[in-house]
Amino acid sequence: MKICQYNNNQAGAVADNQVYPIGAALVRAGHVRSGYTMLEVIDALANKPGAMDSIRDVAKSGTPAALASVKLLAPITNPPSIWCAASNYRAHQQEMVARVKSTGATQNMSKEDLMAEFFLKPVSSIVGPGGNVILPKVSKHVDFECELCAVIGKTAHKVSAAEALDHVFGYLMLWDLSQRDPWGIGRQNTRNMRKGFDTFTGLGPWIVTAEEIPDPHNLRFHVDQNGQTKMTAWTGDMICSLFDHIPFLSGCVTLAPGTLITTGTPAGVQRLAPGDHLKGVMEKIGEMELRVVAET
C-alpha cells in the first residue's frame, strides 16, 4: 500500500491514480484521533490490531480524489528522528575525495566504524513532493543526494539482523541536500549544519508499506537534473545494509515508530543552481520532483 499525506494534512492511500481518504476511515474506526498526525497514522497501522485491516479495502474508506488533483505533502513531517548513513557506497566515497577533499578514511573503515558516522537531520528541514529547495545565501556549493529511506513501524531496541526488517513499516525516497562550501571542505563534523538548512530534506512521494518491498536491497533508481540523467544506482551496492543499520542503531538508541533511517547516497551527486529541476525515480516506490530556488 502507498500511504501519502495530501491537501490539508489528510492521510491517503494511493491506488490506480486515485487517493483514498484512509485518515477519515481510521478516525471512524477509533484507531486515530481527529486532528491526527502522520506519525500517529504510522504508529496505528503498525501497532494497533485491526488498523491496517480496516483500510486494506481502500474503496470502502470513502470517496477518492484523482491523484493529479491533490497536493501531495511530505508523507511524514514529525518523525522522532532522521538518522542518516554516511559514505555508504564505495563509488560515492571515491567521488567525495575529489569533490570536497575528503580524506578517504571511510574507505578503510570496518562496517561498525562506518556506521558510527551516522548523523541526524532536523525535522525543520523537511520538504515534500514538488517543493522548493532553497539555496541559502551563505552557500557557495550545494549538491543533491538521493537515497532509499526506511520508516520504523515497531519500536526497535537491541534487535538482531534477522529481526531488523520486521520493525520496518515502509520505504520512501529521501533527498539529502548538502552544502559543501563553506564548512565542508576537508571537514565532516559539520554535517548537521551543512545538511540541516530549511528545505534540505526532501521526503516522498509516499510511504510504500514493507510487504510491497520484500527486498529493499534490490531496487534500481535514477535522478534527472534538468532532464538529463545524472545518477543511476542499485541499492544492492550499499556497504552497510538495513540488516546492519537497524541492529547498530537500536543497540545505541531506541528507535520509535516513525523514525527515519536513510541509507546513504550513491555516486552521481551534482551541484545545484537556482532554476534547476530534479526528478528522482525509484523502483517499487515512484517518482518525486523538486525545484531549486535562491534564498531571497
Looking at the structure, the CATH topology of the largest domain is Fumarylacetoacetate hydrolase, domain 2
Round the Cα radius of gyration to an integer and report it.
Answer: 19 Å
Series of H and E elements: EEEHHHEEEHHEEEEEEEHEEEHEEEE
Oligomerization state of this entry?
single chain
β-strand percent reads: 25-35%
Question: What share of the residues lie within helices?
Answer: 10-25%
| CATH architectural label of the largest domain | Alpha-Beta Complex
- Could you give me the name of the CATH homologous superfamily of the largest domain? Fumarylacetoacetase-like, C-terminal domain
**Into how many domains do the coordinates divide?**
2
What's the main sheet like?
12 strands, mixed
User: Mean of the pLDDT scores?
Assistant: 96
